[in-house]
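Chain A, query sequence.
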Amino acid sequence: MQLFECLQSIPDPRKKRGIRHPFQPVLKFVLLGFTCRLVAIEHMVSFFKPIWSQLKGSLGFNRPEPPDPTAIRRRLNCLKPEQLQEAFEQWVSELIGNKTFMASVDGKAMRNVKGENGLALMLVNVFAHDLKKRVSRLF
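Chain A, predicted structure.
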């Protein structure tokens, strides 16, 4: 199963009225932006805008312009992190299955970023050498 297919399991939390951009394509857009090492929504929009006509169909958009950065942020604010984490874990578990592999683990505390409990968020990276896959998770 592909990661984009796992994102389909996340329900759209919005009301049906006035929706211009579908929810899952917005998630795909942001994920693609992160893959391109873009961390600001504004940078993602300006980076993808010149190639939007070639990109929009593959992501599931049908409008002539990419979503506005504010609209993307509003969609992401509706998203519960647990839903995204569950979809990601489902994808990784199907990818890895019951295989045994060698892995390297590295963790970092994220400065100036606090979780709901007031403690610094921790980022854990696992690189599975044999599978040539890397998985990251925030705690």
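Helices lie at 3-7, 23-35, 41-48, 52-59, 69-78, 81-96. The CA atoms of residues 94 and 122 lie 25 Å apart.
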